[in-house]
Every structure is written in C-alpha cells, then in structure tokens.
Amino acid sequence: MSQKIIFIALFLPFLQGCSGYDWGWYVLDPSTTQGQTNLRFLISGFSDTIKISLLSMVLAMLLGLLVAFPALSHRRWLQWLNRVYVEVIRSIPVLVLLLWVYYGMPTLLDISLNHFWAGVIALTVAESAFMAEVFRGGIQAISQGQHEAAESLGLNYWQKMRLIILPQAFRQILPPLGNQFVYILKMSSLVSVIGLSDLTRRANELVVNEYLPLEIYTFLVIEYLLLILLVSQAIRWLEKRIAIPSH
C-alpha cells in the first residue's frame, strides 16, 4: 500500500514536466484560501459516494441472494425465471437503467423519487444480477457431503442454508464480492448525471467555475484511486482474517 501511495506522490510532478502545458495547480493549493475552499468542496463529495455505494452493495447482496435461490432449485420454471432476470438486467447499461429509474419510474408509478434513492435503486438492481451469479457459484461449490451432513442432523432447507452452507460459501465468495464492491464504487460516479453531489458531480461543478478541467479531473482520478486502493486493502485484510487455516 505504501508503495502505491509513493507512486501517486510521484505521479503529479511527472505530469508537470511531461508537456509544455502550464498547469494551474493553484486552484487546489491548500496554502491559499481559494485552494482550501476548492479542496473542501471536492472532498465533501466522499460522503454521498460512500453512502450510496455501501447501501447499494448491501441491498444488492440481499436481492442477489434471493435471485440466486431459484437457480438452485430442481424446478425448471424457477431456473428459467432466474436466467431471465439475470440476463435481462446484465444486458442493460447501468447509465440507461439509472436514467430510466430517475425519469421513468416516477412517471410510471406516479411517485416522487429523489436522486439519492434513484441512484440506490438503479445500482442495486444492476448489481443484483452479478451478485446472484456470485452466490449461485459459491453455494454450488460447497461439497454435497456438507448438504448430506446437515440433512442428517434433521435441519430443514432454510436452516441448512443459514447455518451450514451460506457461512462456508461466504468465505469462498469474499474475493468476488470485494471486486463487485469496487465495481459499485466506480459505477457510483454515474449518479452525477442525475444531480447527486458525489465526487464526480463536485468535480464537474468546480470545472464550470474554475475552467481548469485537466487539474480538477486529475485530482478526481487520484481521489477514486486512493479510495479504491483503501477498499482493496481492507478486503484483503478481511480475507486473511476469515481464511480457513490450511493446517
């Protein structure tokens, strides 16, 4: 992690000298009042980015788990319903789904929907299809012997899943779950198009005021890079904490 941060620290001086462009880093200079104000404005976008990403991740996991169960059924029509849902949702671009939820759903259902919840709904639905596949693969990877052992103890289907199968499956699917959370973090930048004040929206607004897109969007890249590196490190730590000992 420290090596990556050092690389980022060296990244900006390299950019400064790689062309004849006169960089206007004064716009984000923390030693000036203007720079402090702009930095606070940009960093304030972390709150909405993290809130919408975390909430969407939790809801997508719950919905994805529900969608995964029909795929594990022996009934063909339930498997068919699972495939239709997964294939349809995965085929819709996240931005298109977001715009439909924000502009179309209120008209269709005659409801009021603010940009935060529109973003949560769109990201949750979009991500749930991928989560369903992750859970399906993780559950199917558990050996048949575990199922038979649970049934020999007199556990019903839901008790078996809750107490025996899902805890083991969760350990196996933690890496792909971490990847999906990183994916949600990146896709959350799309909610800026409907007015949510996330990191990307803040950067867009500052560009309009300062007319320095290269500097501001470079800073935005670094913000997302640091955030995702932090999340990746946390996931790796959690993987080690819950890993099954090899001996």
From TrEMBL:
The membrane topology noted for this protein in its Swiss-Prot or TrEMBL record is:
Multi-pass membrane protein
- In which broad location class does this protein mainly occur, judging by the first location in its UniProt entry? membrane
InterPro entries from the UniProt entry: AA_ABC_transptr_permease_3TM (IPR010065), ArtM/GltK/GlnP/TcyL/YhdX-like (IPR043429), MetI-like (IPR000515), MetI-like_sf (IPR035906)
* Gene Ontology molecular function: transmembrane transporter activity
What are the UniProt keywords, alphabetically? Amino-acid transport, Cell membrane, Membrane, Transmembrane, Transmembrane helix, Transport
* Complex formation: The complex is composed of two ATP-binding proteins (GltL), two transmembrane proteins (GltJ and GltK) and a solute-binding protein (GltI).
The similarity annotation says: Belongs to the binding-protein-dependent transport system permease family. HisMQ subfamily.
Could you tell me what this protein is called?
Answer: Glutamate/aspartate import permease protein GltK
Protein source organism: Vibrio gelatinilyticus
